[in-house]
Amino acid sequence: xxxxxxxxxxxxxxxxxxxxxxxxxxxxxxxxxxxxxxxxxxxxxxxxxxxxxxxxxxxx
Length: 60
Fold this sequence. Notes:
This protein has a domain at about 25-60. It contains one helix and three strands; from the N terminus they run E-E-E-H. It has one helix spanning about 40-60, and strands spanning about 10-15, 25-30, 35-40. It is flat and about 45 Å long.
């Protein structure tokens, strides 16, 4: 990570899927903390893909 970037914490919260909204949105707080609101359906799909990839690696 470049030294010019602030180091802060990122917190994730899930929100219900809604048509027309972006997959995630960030809320930046003073002090470098970021709250990232993630679409619940996208989160579930990402977990499923990660589980499949892990299972494939373990099956080798």
